Amino acid sequence: MKERVIYLLKYYLVTIALFVVAKWVFMLACGDALSIGDYATVVWHGLSLDLSTALYFFGVPFLLTTVSLWVRIPRYVYLIYNGVVAIAFAMAFVADTSLYPFWHFKLDASCLQYLETPTEAMASVTVGYLLVRLVILVMLVLLVWVALSWMRTRFPKVRHRLLGTLGALLLVGPIIIGIRGGLGESTTNIGQVYFSQNQFLNHAAVNPVFSFLSSIGKSGDYIVSYDYMTDEECRQLTDGIYYTDSKGAATLLTTQRPNIVLIVMESCGGQFTEIGGHTDITPRLNRLAHEGVSFSECYANSWRTDKGMVSILSGYPAFPVTSIMKVPEKSRKMPSIAHSLQQAGYENAFYYGGDINFTNMRSYVLGTGYDQLLWKADFSSEEQSSCQWGVKDEIMFDTLLRDIKAEKGNHWMKTLLTLSSHEPWDVPTKVLDDEVYNAFNYLDQCIGQFIDALRKTPAWQNTLVVILPDHGYRYKGIDEATRLYNHIPMLWVGGAVKQPVVIDRLCNQSDLAATLLGQLGISHDDFRFSRDILSSSYTHPVAWHTSTDCLSLYDSTGWMAYDLEANSMIAHEGGDGQRQLQQARALLQLTSHDLKQK
What we know:
The protein is α/β, with parallel strands linked by helices and about 600 residues long. It contains 19 helices and 15 strands. The protein has helices at about 1-30, 35-65, 75-105, 120, 125-150, 160-180, 200-205, 210-215, 230-240, 285-290, 305-315, 330, 335-345, 360-365, 380-385, 395-405, 435-455, 510-520, 575-595, and strands at about 260-265, 295, 300, 345-350, 370-375, 410-415, 465-470, 485-490, 490-495, 500-505, 505-510, 545, 550-555, 560-565, 570-575. The strands form three sheets. The chain has an eight-stranded mixed beta sheet with strand order 5-4-6-1-7-9-2-10, with helices on both faces. It has a four-stranded antiparallel beta sheet with strand order 12-13-14-15, with helices on one face. Strands 8-3-11 form a three-stranded mixed beta sheet, with no helix packed on it. Strand 4, helix 14 (about 360-365) and strand 5 form a beta-alpha-beta unit. The longest helix is centred in the N-terminal third of the chain and has 32 residues, at about 35-65. The model has no long low-confidence stretch (mean pLDDT about 90).
């Protein structure tokens, strides 16, 4: 039994060593002016993904050695498997290192589409270039095969085969957990290895084998393209809805260069505020709505955090199936408020008390203009367990306030994504008997206390605080079949707000980007689907929403909700429901085709 354990341990360690060496070669071939420290940090941060990826290829040797307790496995079986793995590894390493200088992102399944047109794919390189890569590929296959095959695979018989088999079965669970990446909410993903503002170092840390395997099904068919009508019909139905210019917009702020605090409230739809007729759940938000700018007819784009965050930060509508944040080859091409502000001299920080690797959030945040990232791992063990999802909101707001007080001179934007108002609603206060309402009351308290404290600092006078949720929440009969489900509060408060005002123009949360940048005099031409709703060019107010199986649209005549799975209208209020449905389908077709082409 000892010989089998040693073999498996060696096999696993050799696989990891191959991944580490591949990283060094990648950095040598594609990097520029890198230090020894860069090589070390890339290996360290990429190790968690390497450990999980190695387990994918550990399964067959593990199975073979377990079966060998009962019957002898010929050595050629091991050699054949090692040959297959060697070819896969070598192709991934060579392709990744060769394509990166052209693509500037890690190897993924999108390269497969070029196999359909190999002539065009090879037009950018010389025959010599291809021959060199072919030679390297063959040599690398041999080297990897030898590295995996030198170990002994003829094992002695064991006397306690049942005991050995039982021990092997007990290891299945830890192996599966290792492949998954642990027992937490987030599973193994590319974003977990991102650590730097230098995107090359982040990319170098990514395991190319995992990057390719994880992207299969997530590029191409995973980006669902909705085709309801001809392109001309689609154009006619969507013409005039999206404009990116700002003309004659009313000025809401006292300055074009305020510092910005963006608070994204977990699940806090309008049903928990005075929008939904509640005065006791979020009294501070209700009060703030009358102290600053209140966008009274704002609607969420989606029903999940990963989709809502992209709508808010990148001004991009959400989709029923596709989560842009989970598809790095698409999310990295998105515009973002942070990037636009960064170009204007702002420094940007992102705060989240949970696991930043969840839904690939880390890669999206770091790839869209945020200079600093503060998340659960940056806090003490006690703070990390202060609520079910991580660090409770009051600690995060205290940290945010501390950092604002420490700012000196430069323009900045700080974004905080809250998390306490989420199942299982474990908040440290008990004001309301209903546990859901009580959780939102706690969030409201945290925001109120933060605003009160910020108001007493010198930073207040030049600060704009933008408050809105990532999405609504299904509760007590409020769901996609009700208009209130997607109706959300969006508030602008702070010393930089000129005066209280209510903006009652219909809009989506994805319109924040163009509207905010328009107020700052910063171009938002890249935000194709975000509209400056204060502009005189905003003449077709429409808001729409998607969830996994629902599509809804709101306009000046009313609203409708449609079940995509059942192909039936599930709710309709005023207006021409069929016309609204066609327009909603056209918008979904327009945006999905745009995403497909990115």
